[in-house]
Design goal:
The complex is a heterodimer of chains A (about 400) and B (about 220). Chain A is of the alpha+beta class and about 400 residues long. Chain A folds into 2 domains: about 190 residues, no CATH class; about 180 residues, no CATH class. Chain A has 13 helices and 11 strands. The radius of gyration of chain A is 30 Å and the shape is elongated. Chain A starts with 5 loop residues before the first helix and ends with a helix. Chain B is of the alpha/beta class. Chain B contains 7 helices and 10 strands. In chain B, helix 5 packs parallel to helix 6. Chain B starts with a strand and ends in a 6-residue tail after the last strand. The chains are: A alpha+beta (about 400), B alpha/beta (about 220). At the A-B interface, helix 1, helix 8 and helix 13 of A face helix 2 and helix 3 of B. The complex binds adenosine-5'-triphosphate and magnesium ion. Adenosine-5'-triphosphate binds next to strand 2 and helix 1 of chain B.
């Protein structure tokens, strides 16, 4: 016996109507799923940036427009370098309320014969570092050795590969997890390696003025002891160390979170608008269908259908349509969002990190169910009216 | 034994008495024709018996149940379980095939059974056209599909309102032969018609005029 389902049959035999209704819900699902993924990606980008920065305060040389270049470096991965005296970490530890102070040194490689790729190189001191090291530890169980580098996930180099930086051969020993920030385009090494690279860069005539012999550093990451006021420590640092500016990391990130809040709001308003619009169009579409289907429903009534059966049939048809539309919309959003994550990131100019597959799947499933529910809900009036068709009268009119 | 009994049934639209105090009874297994001029209330009566409409006053007993007092839900159940309807116009769902149109009736009654639906189409000589859509069938063929749909659930009572009004002689004969067969199987038939030949096939003819029963004629030649 062939299985016979009237709602499914109706959808298949009226492909035009089914397509229009499905596309309407697809539009809805696209907006909901796409919007949520973008907002979630921005949120996890911000979280990861916060986690990576890890420090309460960052010390940078005061002469440069350091804050700006620093922020750009982290958010967009623009390369840059600025240097200060190597004694700054020790001086910082003298300040009351400072728990940890870890130096980092930045060096930009060139897009030239001497280097395989143009990237930001970041030297860390594994002993003192508390921001990058925990992240490296997740991909590499031992410390970084001499001329070893760990690469961010957007650097095109595989583990085991040798990359050249200022004619120096560096071995890639780890690829790091994505953070969705400019940190993904950087290469990390220890301070010894960094010194070798700095000297090599100097020989190449890269115009950074490096005091010979001494270790130079670009920034110091400071962690404040529990119970101390970060702002107070910040101003004590500013007073204690000369030619260095202490910046609260929060202040760098608030700019980001402000724009994030702005984008979230825009997306939310957009989703709401699409919903209202799509719901109204669906409602209208179903109301138009009432007229078209009155005779059909009268025939079904005469064939023995009860009112309940007919309204259930309308709801089944519309939720199936919604289910189909939801799948199309989510699929379309996925096709648009995931391959073009890079483009979205640079367009928004904000840290952007696609959420975990589990979260995305859950979101997708939720969106599909929601689409089905909305489609069903918008057909309630039609279901009610069609189930109340007076078969005698409807068929008399048809004649 | 009486299957259907109308007691003083009236149907009034404004000041028009479409049915005016009609009383009649139909026995189980009887084949009755209803005749009368246009506007005499034939369809009005059929709609009331078919549980599609309610009388303004009077009682309609079907199998001992007064259907003029039943809820619309109950009327749907009665119609589904006991009555097969055939109209002058061919009411098919236009995007379902012939066999699916028949199965719709089973769908709401019990379980769609394609084999049984195909057999019913076979009885009206349309076994080969089962997969055709209504638009691919002639009027006569569509009407035969409707007849197949009406009898698929083995109803006790078949109500046909001018079933042959739009049919040619050949199709009319197919339908009448089928009615004769159903009658033999014990089905009760009430057939509204303007065609004396169709009325002659029945055991008894009831003539309506101005919403009243004008006369009844027993067909002496029935079965001969
Ligand atoms: N819903 C209605 N509202 C008002 N008047 C109606 C309605 N239905 C039927 N009538 C009137 O009731 C009378 C009986 O109509 P009915 O359809 O029963 O006639 P009939 O005997 O079937 O005629 P015909 O042979 O032309 O089909 C007619 O005068 C018709 O105009
Ligand atoms: Mg009539």
């Amino acid at each position: 016996m062939k299985h016979f389902s009237l709602p499914v049959n109706n959808l298949i035999r009226k492909p035009g109507r089914t397509t229009v209704l499905a596309l309407l819900t697809a539009f809805l699902a696209l907006a909901v799923f796409g919007g949520s993924v973008v907002v979630l990606s921005l949120r996890s980008g911000l979280n990861s940036l916060e986690a990576r920065l890890g420090a309460d305060i960052i010390l940078v040389p005061s002469q440069a427009q350091s804050k700006v270049s620093f922020q750009n470096m982290f958010l967009q991965g623009t390369t840059g370098a600025f240097y200060m005296d190597a004694s700054v970490p020790e001086k910082a530890l003298e300040v009351e309320g400072v728990e940890k102070a870890a130096p980092q040194t930045f060096l930009a490689s060139l897009k030239a014969d001497c280097c395989s790729i143009k990237i930001q190189v970041i030297g860390i001191d594994p002993e003192r570092d508390f921001t990058v090291q925990p992240w490296i530890t997740r991909s590499l169980t031992r410390d970084l050795g001499d001329m070893d580098v760990a690469v961010g996930c957007k650097v095109e180099a595989d583990v085991g590969e040798i990359i050249r930086i200022y004619e120096q051969r560096c071995k890639v020993v780890a690829r790091l997890e994505a953070t969705g920030t400019g940190l993904d385009t950087a290469v990390y090494c220890d301070m010894n390696t960094m010194n070798t690279l700095l000297r090599a860069a100097e020989e190449k005539g890269v115009s950074h003025k490096i005091e010979s012999g001494d270790q130079v550093i670009s920034a110091v990451y400071v962690k404040v002891k529990d119970g101390y006021d970060i702002d107070a420590v910040n101003s004590r640092l500013n007073g204690h160390i000369r030619k260095v500016t202490a910046v609260r990391t929060r202040s760098m990130i608030t700019g980001v979170s402000d724009s994030l809040a702005g984008v979230s709001r825009t997306v939310t308003v957009l989703i709401a608008a699409v919903w209202v619009l799509a719901f109204m169009i669906l409602l209208l579409a179903f109301l138009l269908i009432i007229r078209e289907r009155t005779r059909e429903f009268a025939v079904l009534r005469l064939a023995g259908a009860s009112r309940g059966m007919l309204s259930r049939m309308v709801l089944a048809e519309s939720s199936l349509c919604g289910l189909l539309g939801g799948l199309i919309g989510v699929g379309l959003a996925a096709l648009l969002l995931f391959p073009f994550a890079q483009l979205i990131e640079s367009a928004l100019n904000l840290p952007y990190l696609t959420p975990k597959p589990g979260t995305v799947l859950l979101l997708a499933a939720g969106t599909v169910l929601l689409s089905a529910a909305v489609a069903a809900f918008s057909s309630v009036i039609a279901a009610y009216r069609l189930s109340r068709v007076d078969p005698g009268a409807a068929l008399r009119e048809g004649n | 034994m009486s299957l259907l009994e109308l007691k003083n049934v009236s149907k009034i639209y404004g000041d028009l008495k479409a049915l005016d105090n009609v009383s009649l009874h139909v026995d189980q297994g009887e084949w009755v024709a209803i005749m009368g001029p246009s506007g005499s209330g034939k369809s009005t009566m059929m709609n009331i018996i078919g549980c599609m409409d309610k009388p303004t006053s009077g009682e309609v007993l079907l199998d001992g149940v007064d259907i003029s007092r039943e809820s619309s839900k109950k009327l749907t159940d009665i119609r589904r379980d006991k009555i097969g309807l055939i109209f002058q116009q061919f009411h098919m769902v236009n995007y379902l095939t012939a066999v699916e149109n028949v199965m719709v009736s089973q769908y709401y009654h019990s379980m769609p059974d394609e084999k049984e639906a195909l057999e019913a189409l076979g009885r009206v000589g349309l076994r080969e056209r089962a997969r055709h859509l209504p638009s691919q069938l002639s009027g006569g063929e569509q009407q035969r599909v409707c007849v197949a749909r009406a009898l698929i659930n083995h109803p006790e009572l078949i109500l046909a309102d001018e079933p042959t009004g739009n049919l040619d002689e050949a199709n009319e004969n197919i339908v009448l032969d089928l009615f004769a067969q159903l009658h033999k199987e014990g089905t009760t038939l009430i057939v509204v018609t303007h065609d004396p030949e169709v009325a002659d096939a029945a055991q008894r003819t009831i003539v309506l005029e101005h919403g009243k029963v004008a006369r009844e004629v027993i067909n002496e030649n029935f079965g001969k």
